[in-house]
Write a structure and sequence with these properties.
- By secondary structure, this protein is of the alpha/beta class.
- The protein folds into 2 domains: about 5-20 and about 75-205, HAD superfamily/HAD-like (Rossmann fold), CATH 3.40.50; about 20-75, no CATH class.
- The protein contains 8 helices and 8 strands; from the N terminus they run E-H-E-E-H-H-E-H-E-H-E-H-E-H-E-H.
- Helix 5 crosses helix 6 (about 150-160).
- The model is unreliable at about 215-218 (pLDDT under 50).
Length: about 220
């Protein structure tokens, strides 16, 4: 790879595709589990309907695995995400860094392509800073922008790669009000939760002028 272009590295779930809302619906339909996120704790959001008891941590991971193995067809794009990714790809290399096990990499790539996002997919488990460092070493970009919905990944990136520009974007209304804000913590350069606002911000960092609003003439 050459370093002729900037690099944009984006997460997928709740950034490009909705996940939690579909996971919630599936849990209710198939497992009689209620998902209600009232705090920043994902683990506390899952409750057995019959008893109100919290779903055990190991069981949550098992259910997430089942969802990604069999229910990814439910996921639909975040408003504006597909158009934004295709616009950005004209000015930068765009890749996806998603926290799924490696066996699901091809499925995720096919899923995104079916929605109109054709981008190379990298899978990862755990903090994303080391994975991003590996991607940067391969692409050798002029500069890098990292987009993710979770504050811990922004912290991981900024601690290891402080030169990377980071955008905290969480487009899922069920989650966005409750998660820690990476921008407020000093680990993201901005917090923007809609692509209508995020795309101009990103294009500005790429040095691309955004068109002025069209005005009707009489």
């Amino acid at each position: 790879m050459t370093g002729a272009r900037p690099l944009i590295v984006s997460d997928c779930d709740e950034v490009l595709l909705h996940m939690v809302s579909h996971f919630r619906d599936w849990l209710a339909e198939r497992h009689d589990i209620e998902f209600r996120m009232d705090t920043a704790s994902f683990a506390d959001a899952l409750r057995h309907r019959g008893t109100g008891a919290a779903v055990a941590g190991d069981e949550i991971w098992r259910l997430l695995g089942l969802f990604f193995d069999h229910e990814m067809h439910r996921q639909h794009p975040v408003a504006g995400a597909v158009a934004a990714m295709n616009t950005l790809s004209r000015h930068a290399d765009v890749v996806i860094l998603t926290n799924l096990v490696d066996a699901r990499r091809e499925h995720r790539a096919q899923q995104l392509a079916a929605h109109g996002i054709r981008a190379r997919v990298f899978t990862n488990q755990g903090p994303k800073g080391p994975a991003l460092a590996g991607i940067i070493a391969e692409y050798r970009p002029s500069f890098t922008i990292f987009i993710d919905d979770l504050a811990q990944h922004h912290r991981s990136v900024k601690e290891l790669l402080p030169e990377v520009t980071t955008l905290h974007l969480c487009a899922e209304a069920l989650v966005a009000p409750h998660i820690p804000c990476a921008h407020r913590a000093g680990h993201a350069d901005a917090r923007i939760d809609t692509w209508d606002e995020a795309l101009p911000w990103l294009l500005e960092r790429l040095g691309v002028a955004t068109p002025a609003p069209h005005k009707e003439t009489t």
